[in-house]
Amino acid sequence: MAGRVTFAAHSLDVVIVGGGGAAALAALAAKERGASVALLTKESSLVGGATIMSAGGTSAPYTSSDSPEIFLADILRAGGGLNNRKLAGLLADGAVPAVFNLETYGYLLDRKDANTLRTIKQGEGHAFPRGYLDRREALGLCHALSRALMRNEIVLFPEMVASKLLLKENRVIGVLAFSLVTGEYSAFNAKCVILATGGLGALYKVTTNSTVLTGDGYAMALDAGAELIDMEMVQFLPINFPYPETRRGKMIGMCSHFGPGVKLYNGLGERYMTKYDPQRMEFTTRDIGSRANFTEIKEGRGTKNQAIIVDPRDHDPAILLRFRTSVPHIYAMFREIYGERAAQWQEPFEAIPSQHFFMGGVKIDEQCRTTIPGLFAVGEVTGGVHGANRLSGTALTEIFFFGPLVGRTAALFAETEKLIPLDAGEINREIDTLESTAMRTGKGVRPFEFKEAIQAVMWDKLGPVREGTEMKAAIDTLEKIQRTAQEQMAVGSRSRTYNRDRMEAIEVKFMITTALLVARSALMRQESRGSHYRTDFPLPNDGKWLKNLVVTKNRGSGAEINAKEIA
């Protein structure tokens, strides 16, 4: 075809899609076993994603009075019984070694002495204090992992946008992507692919997450034929910055940050947690806390800034000192946004709930294998570990344990499998389709407009509080957005280099697919469990719904959702 867009070809043992801690640890472990590895990330930084923004600590049974068995019981309780018990058990058993294993990559832990980590915090839902807080926050970890990637000569492709998993002989054999820097396409031929694309925070108008987390991995995995699980389970965090707009939704955390004297009030001056959790009050779990804060604001009892009020004045100075030293980035934002007195916990401040984590995702086994040969997955893109609600501090623990595990597993797979060559004709057809649909130029609706529409409907109708009629309306709206995007979406510039519209056009496609999976799964689950709360079905129903919702690709381009017994 005259004028056809060409592509560069690369051949490797293992290709990893993602740019956070899970991707980095997987790459390092695979390289240690002798595999040739490439890491593709949409970001310009080497290690970023949600990892670089995390500040909630790393939970593990560090003390002699604690145990993996007690830790596992807490994980399963938080997960509302939907967890894959084998995956959760592996996490609990391997948590402490996984944390200390970070030192093999040049990341020295923040120790009180040779045998004790400096700050261990009691988190909601934990039987013992287990939340290790590092004064460098996750930024220090990401810098250490970036150095390790460079020292180990991992082949890095930053600002590379993956658009499709490539299949042949019912096996994933590579990834098609394009460079934001050059505008050129690349086809990565591999013996196996690891998805480490993170969560879906950017589907929501208000989120603690990075804007690059647009649900890419879920959509690509389903398109390749992999099964997904529990796509209705979206976690929200109760206390986050309400302003300025550039910081709206960014993480402050939980009431436990401020000690047992903290109090929540609505705009009417009412201490409203008496309605939502009269026993634990402000020390409730994050799902109930987010729901309470969201409801007070939505029903008109918020402040004039559409927020709730956090009053930390009754506090222990030692807890304030811990806050200042263990989450210095959040403390600095406190001073900048609220002023010195609020930063010293001498006056109340405003806050809002925000989307934070995703418990559903790609279904994996204990070796991080998906249901499609040649495709592995790790981190927040996977489902099953956390069930219906993630226990605080276990997101980093998960990637610290499963990141190296999936890297080793993928390298072993590559040792025994042959490289199946790519089909150049198929790749050219896929590029032609992208160029003529998602990447088309001219008059039309810009990708960012579709993204904003998706984010609005997800926050308003699939947030911390859900209801059947509203979710049906959300599905109708999302389907209309999908049809309109297919017909009218156009990028605003013909430039191929650093044209973010091209990246956002791909993201819109992934976002709509993932949003519809969340909405349809949430509508199907007619109960409330963990992070999934419905006003029309406010109680859990173990008899009917103590099951996983499993998503499979149907013969067309859509998906089927079925309730299945828990693995």
Sheet/helix structural class: alpha+beta
The tally of helices reads: 16
CATH homologous superfamily classification of the largest domain: FAD/NAD(P)-binding domain
How many angstroms does the end-to-end distance come to?
49 Å
Unreliable sequence segments: none
CATH top level of the largest domain is Alpha Beta
Number of strands: 22
**CATH architecture heading of the largest domain:** 3-Layer(bba) Sandwich
Report Rg: 23 Å
What would your notes on this structure say?
The strands form five sheets. Strands 1, 2, 8, 9, 10, 11 and 19 form a seven-stranded mixed beta sheet that branches. Strands 20-18-12-21-22 form a five-stranded mixed beta sheet, covered by helices on one side. It has a five-stranded antiparallel beta sheet with strand order 14-13-17-16-15. Strand 9 and strand 10 (171-179) form a beta hairpin. The protein is α+β, with helices and mostly antiparallel strands and 567 residues long. Helices cover 36% and strands 19% of the residues. It has helices at 21-32, 68-78, 85-100, 137-151, 216-224, 273-276, 286-298, 317-326, 328-338, 340-343, 394-416, 424-436, 447-461, 468-488, 500-524, 542-545, and strands at 7-17, 37-40, 58-59, 111-113, 116-117, 119-121, 131-133, 155-157, 160-168, 171-179, 185-195, 228-229, 234-240, 251-253, 263-265, 308-311, 349-358, 361-363, 375-377, 382-383, 548-553, 559-564. The chain has 16 helices and 22 strands. It has three domains: 7-233 and 359-416, FAD/NAD(P)-binding domain (3-Layer(bba) Sandwich); 241-353, Alpha-Beta Complex (Flavocytochrome C3, Chain A, domain 1); 432-538, Fumarate reductase/succinate dehydrogenase flavoprotein-like, C-terminal domain (Methane Monooxygenase Hydroxylase, Chain G, domain 1), CATH 1.20.58. The model has no long low-confidence stretch (mean pLDDT 93).
